[in-house]
Amino acid sequence: MATDAGTAIPRFPPGFLWGVSTSAHQIEGAAEKREPSVWDVFTAAPGRVKDGSTAAVACDHYHRYREDVALLAGLGVDAYRFSVSWPRVNSPGGLDFYDRLVDELCAAGVRPVPTLFHWDLPADRDWLDRDTAARFADHVTVVADRLGDRVGTWITLNEPAEHTLLGHALGTHAPGRRLLFDALPVAHHQLLAHGLAVRALRAAGADGIGIANSHGPTWPASRDQADLEAAGFYDVLLNRLFADPVVLGAYPEGMGDLMPGDVESDLKVIAEPVDWYGVNYYAPTRVGAPQGTAGEFGGVPLPAELPFSVREIEGRPVTDFGWPVVPEGLTELLTGFRDRYGDRLPPVVITENGCSYDGVDDQDRIAYLDAHVRALHRAIEAGVDVRGYFVWSLMDNFEWAEGYARRFGLVHVDFETLERTPKASYHWFRDLLRTQRPA
Ligand code: GBH
């Protein structure tokens, strides 16, 4: 994979932002100190999470955030991407937690980068309701008013594509709906929420605003017309449906007609200019025409009636999750974005990249990250304006429907004792950051 491993990683441009990411529901715990989210309701029902676990305690970051900020400082990152739990902000004293966290980060010299929604919707809200978009903007205003004096970089939403697909189309994530294509309003309402959030942030005097969308190249299974068409449709559904409205102010051809409400006027809100565009990258997807089974998406079996099928990418190492390791997919994705969106594409930040492997001596994670950082540098050399790179994740955490079985962290967490142990990859990333900016 990393054929050039061993030679030094090239120097990134001055001011390039290095960071790590987490999300509230996956690390905080202290569930009793906040209102329930759709994820609390979802995981309370049996059979939803593989190991039967919940995020009631998770990494207990709510109580251990000082220790975790010390780990960030030891790593030497410029920035820390975390998420603000909307149900916690709704609870008495909830915002105080983020106030303390931001203070601690600032004192440690780490830039706070809050995401305002990372899938933990208050249990009494619903993305099928248009009104949720407006209520989200209210939440954003409350957070910005409180933290805005110390926060200069904001993320509206995390991966509305995955939240739509897994949560509302396939039902393997909260809230567990299986609406297939009837889930499309959930995508539109989240995009509208994004646009309203950008406006709310600007009104609160904030800038440095972006979104974190998940993207990966779609590889057609063959050059046959049927495979090309199926792959094209998949690409529209998972990539362009979420990038085009934000970057171009338009839905891909035919998709706007499937969305609710006054789509043209909503698109003006959705296209509210952002300062940068966040990309979460894990792997490409190989897609062909429908066949007997539709394959899997990130380990989730797809229903056979879909107009495409996801095929295995052969001849590649896979992570513990079974996802193929394809670093050059990151270069391809970013140069493809530049070619498609041209001058309309804002500066890009990689807001997530990482892999699940077990073990504290995680040489496989080091190989993955090393190869992806090099692939990112190649995109910069090819002229893509990339301003930052965040590893998913700072520490092992609650990996949604997989429970605690998948470990994405640079820091190992023992979920019995909650003890944190930096892995080999933590030391590797720390050393990389040192060589990227010598004294
Ligand atoms: C992100 O989701 C989330 O933002 C984060 O909360 C989560 O913990 C993290 O990633 C790790 O899962 O089957 O090879 O085609 C990303 C989810 C990543 C799921 C790419 C589908 C397809 C890989 N997506 N994946 S593959």
From TrEMBL:
Keywords: Carbohydrate metabolism, Cellulose degradation, Glycosidase, Hydrolase, Polysaccharide degradation. The keyword Hydrolase applies. It is an enzyme of class 3 (hydrolase). Its EC number is 3.2.1.21. It catalyses: Hydrolysis of terminal, non-reducing beta-D-glucosyl residues with release of beta-D-glucose. It comes from the Bacteria. Pfam families: Glyco_hydro_1 (PF00232). Belongs to the glycosyl hydrolase 1 family. This is Beta-glucosidase. It comes from Streptomyces bangladeshensis.
